[in-house]
Amino acid sequence: MSFLAPAKALLSAAASLAATAMVVRSVACDLLPSELRSFISNGIHSMFSRFSPDITLIIEEMDDLDNNQIYEAAETYLSSKISPTTQRLKVSNPVTDKTFALTMEPNEPLTDVFRSVKFIWILVCRQLESHSFYNPRDLKSTLKSEFRSLELTFHKKHKEMVLNTYIPYILQQAKSIKQETKALKIFTVDYQNIYGNIGDAWVGINLNHPATFDTLAMERVVKEFVMKDLERFVRRKEYYRRVGKAWKRGYLMHGPPGTGKSSLIAAMANYLKFDVYDLELTELQVNSELRRLLIGMANRSILVVEDIDCTAEFHDRRTRSRAASGNNNDTQLTLSGLLNFIDGLWSSCGDERIIVFTTNHKGKLDPALLRPGRMDVHIHMSYCTPCGFRQLASNYLGIKEHSLFEQIEEEMQKTQVTPAEVAEQLLKSRGIETRLEQLLDFMRKKKETQEMEAKKKQQLLDFLRKKKETQEMEAKKKQQLLDFLRKKKETQEMEAKKKEQEAEDEEEQQGKEIDDGSEEENFDSDDDNNEETSLEQFLDFMIKKIETQEMEA
Questions:
Q1: In terms of pLDDT, which residue wins out, 352 or 30?
Q2: Which residues does UniProt assign to the signal peptide (predicted)?
């Protein structure tokens, strides 16, 4: 009994204290302004926190008028750390992501362990008055009615580790998570907004291309080389910085149409989780437009210029200087502008970018485009090979072996058939046997067609060769005739000069005799001179005609 009395007294005192506290709280809520209540609450919390070994970091959603990158990274990171025991979660499906997003609910603690250190995260939401949450840089701010922040609580002795290691780790992990879950996009140029805001020059839609390196109809050695080259590129940021090069990589894909150049680009984008920017050079007028588009591209992206040999006609850099005429290179799209875009100063305004050029005719490209540093890797997209065929058979038919494979591969080595043509034949009919037989028949017919075309080309080549030989013989005969006429003309000129000299000498010796006989002789000599003049004119005419024909040829 003696023990129960003090216990009852303590309970009574505690109840009285609690009742008093409730009354005081009620009075404070009714009489004190919210700002004063918050000040008193923070003061009491600060007083008690001095005796706590823990420290709390406040990470607010907004940093002045900008989004807080640490808050966004922490929110993404914590979504992957949600425990199965968590009772309340918020689920959403953002347009830019491929999966559902799970986020914390307010006041629901979440525990994370990093390097054996325990961290407690809590999402805090505070209601805002209607006039205080408008953000002119956030179009959705008028719909927000709360202020959100994350509170990170941990032991004081780990403060340096949190600031120097834990938070940078969260930023890096969040970046990786976003790359894994984001929906890839393909962008094209909005030419109406090319001189507006730089960010509005590109418009994009989701890229849902299914191509991967596992499904590409290419030689295994080539696929492995490209994959290793891409992996090496993305992890060598510090190396590029150390050697003083822009963090970019250039690929030239060349080969006949239908050999899988576009599919390889899509596979690269899916492999690296890079967005694709498709640039059509024929729509650009000046170099300045090219620079604006480069600035508007995001990092971790692939720039694609297809059919570079025919999409734009660049002005030859070897033509006369335009400085004398006062023209500026910015008034036109030039080859030098494209080269500066690839590896000049403007190429360093972004990081982790891949530039891909495709062409059906590599020989038509300017050699300046092909050198290392601009197009670092040249990938020849060949006709379908036995290895590529087996990959297509696995993709379309779901088989690894068949009795017709050997015949098909034998015909494939003798026939130029593209992976696109093979895929088309494998899609036509039902039944594995039927489709393989159709493919074999298609290749045999194509082989016959190619042999006929090759025969016609050879016949045409022989005809042109014979015609060239005939023309060379005719030209040789003309040259011989021309040489003969020139020599004859020279001989006649020498004879005429000799006769003239003899006549002068004879006149000096005999003098001039004027009689009928001499007049008749002069008349005869005039006739001889007229004949010589006519022959000279004929020779001059023939020489000029032959020279004219040579110039026309």
A1: 352
A2: 1-29
Amino acid 351 reads D
How far lies 546's CA from each of 274, 400, 466, 477, 478, in Å? 66, 71, 23, 11, 7
Which contacts qualify for 82-89: CB closer than 8 Å, 24 or more apart? 82/110, 83/110, 83/111, 86/110
Nearest CA to 276 out of 194, 184, 210, 358 is that of: 184
Contacts of the segment 229-232: beta carbons below 8 A, 24+ positions apart: 229/377, 230/268, 230/271, 230/272, 230/354
Q: Is the pLDDT of residue 400 over 60?
A: yes
**Strand order across the 202-206 sheet:** 202-206, 185-189, 275-278, 301-305, 353-359, 248-254, 377-380
- What value, to the nearest 5°, has the Cα angle with vertex 545 and ends 543 and 550? 95
Per-residue pLDDT at 466 exceeds 70: yes
CA angle at 151 for the pair 147 and 155, rounded to the nearest 5°: 165
Backbone angles phi, psi at 208, to 5 degrees: -110, 35
SS (H, E, C) 111-144: EEEECCEEEEEEEEEEECCCCCCCCCCCCCHHHC
Under a CB-based contact definition with an 8 Å cutoff, are residues 153 and 55 in contact? yes
Three-class DSSP category at 249: strand
Q: Tokens in use for 432?
A: 């594995």
How would DSSP label each residue in 497-522?
A: HHHHHHHHHHHHHH----SHHHHHHH
> Cβ(272)–Cβ(180) under 8 Å?
no
Backbone angles phi, psi at 254, to 5 degrees: -130, 145
C-alpha distance across the termini of the chain, in Å: 134
Distance, CA of 525 to CA of 500 (rounded, Å): 12
Sheet of strand 54-60, all strands in order from the earlier edge strand to the far edge: 54-60, 146-155, 117-127, 110-114
pTM, two decimals, is 0.64
Res. 183 pLDDT band, cuts 50 70 90: confident
> What contacts 492, CB < 8 A, 6 or more positions away?
532, 535, 536, 539
Spatial separation of the C-alpha atoms in residues 491 and 504, rounded to whole Å: 20
- Based on C-alpha coordinates, what's the Rg of the chain? 44
- CA–chain centroid gap for 464, Å, is 43
Distances in Å between the alpha carbon of 292 and those of 205, 296, 473? 20, 6, 59
Task: Give yes or no for residue 6 having a pLDDT over 70.
Answer: no
Is the pLDDT at 548 greater than 50? The verdict is yes
Which stretches within 413-431 are classed as H helix?
Answer: 419-428
d(CA 54, CA 154): 5
d(CA 214, CA 211): 8
Q: DSSP states of 438-449 as a string?
A: HHHHHHHHHHHH
